[in-house]
Amino acid sequence: MNSNWKNALLTHLAVLTVSGTDAAQFLQGQITCNVHEVTATHSSLGAMCNPKGRAITTFLLAKSGDDFLLILPVELLETVKKRLSMYVLRSKVTLTDCSDSLCLLGFTATLTDAFLASYQQDGVVRINVGNRDLVIADEHNASVILAQGVETIDSMHWQTLDILGGIPWLTTATSEQFIPQMLNLDKLGGISLTKGCYTGQEIVARTHYLGKAKRALFVAECETATPEANASIIDANGQIVGNVLSANDDKLLIVLQLAETDTTQLQLKDYHHASLTLLTKEHS
After folding, report:
1. Does the structure show a pLDDT above 60 at 4?
2. Does residue 156 share a domain with residue 209?
3. 9 and 1 in contact (C-beta within 8 Å)?
4. What pLDDT shows up at residue 2?
5. Per the confidence metrics, is the pTM higher than 0.70?
6. What is the pLDDT at residue 139?
7. What is the pLDDT of residue 210?
8. Which of these, 164, 274, 158, 160, lies nearest to 217 by C-alpha position?
9. Nearest CA-CA partner of 204 in 55, 81, 76, 86
10. 112 and 202 both lie in a single domain
11. Who wins on pLDDT, 186 or 6?
12. What CATH number is attached to the domain comprising 236?
């Protein structure tokens, strides 16, 4: 096996497969993005919400044949699987944890169609993430792809690039804390306002049409601390004005009150008041 095998795996993410003749209809009623727009070559960010419109998890949704692949944080996979199972009822849907059968590989550059052509026939799925590619493959194909010597990204590096790219991932600490708009999913194409009803849809739609989202996602930097998810952010007066969504090295994604984006006094409350610097200063 290739010596870079372990370093190439994105071990912080997992794959939950949704299969069966009713898979598309079932998912359409549970998630924020439009399932019918996802194809073998087009993926989508999205969220699964509770009835109050709070995101239980965010994910990347891809398609392999007739199956849908939810790429989501490992630590939320069982929670999401159990929650989705509650809604299956008589639908012809099967939920499968594919952690042991599928590998997630991160690449520092987009891979050419010619490079992947021989593997895609065997169910290899490629998801483009900006100037990177995430590839889902079984162990055999993953090993063959890695043997070609293409530069890979390990989990830590991938997480940092996701933070810099403003891609929101939740944890057990932040699950069910934020509506999708607070995570910028509307700006990232992860919310469909025309697809019809889904769990939490009323709150998500109301927030959009009434313009009531008072918090949004920003990229920040902290050179002196790497906080835990959901750590509190305070202003110069000691008032809590936001929370950390994720952090890696000195880069952070934070959910911040929109009125606080011009301040230069943001600090981490429980980290010796370590100062934050916003790298994105406007919510577009």
Report:
1. no
2. no
3. no
4. 44
5. yes
6. 87
7. 86
8. 164
9. 55
10. no
11. 186
12. 2.40.30.160
pLDDT tens-digit profile of 191-203?
999 999 999 999 9
Residue with tokens 């994910």: 59
SS3 19: strand
- Termini Cα distance of the chain: 45
CA angle, 196 then 44 then 185, to 5°: 75
- CA gap 45, 186 in Å, rounded: 10
- Give yes or no for a contact between 60 and 101, defined as CB atoms under 8 angstroms apart: no
Provide the residue range defining the domain that includes 129: 8-161
Shared domain check, 156 and 118:
yes
Chain Cα centroid distance, residue 60: 6
**56 and 156 share a domain?**
yes
Structure tokens at 269: 């409350």
Query: Are 72 and 208 in a shared domain?
Result: no
Together in a domain, 243 and 270: yes
Going by C-beta distance under 8 Å and a sequence separation of 6 or more, which residues neighbour residue 211? none
Say how far apart CA 30 and CA 262 lie, in whole Å: 36
216: β partners: 256
Q: Look at the block and give the residue holding tokens 């009713």.
A: 22
Taking the C-alpha atoms of residue 240 and residue 134, their distance in angstroms, rounded to an integer, is 36
Q: Is the pLDDT of residue 78 over 70?
A: yes
pLDDT for residue 1 is more than 80: no
Rounded Cα distance between 36 and 82, Å, is 24
Question: How, if at all, do strands 267-268 and 232-234 pair?
Answer: antiparallel
* pLDDT for position 188: 96
> 131-145: buried (b, 16+ CB within 10 Å) or exposed (e) per residue?
ebbbbbbeeebbeeb
Q: For the chain, what is the mean pLDDT?
A: 91
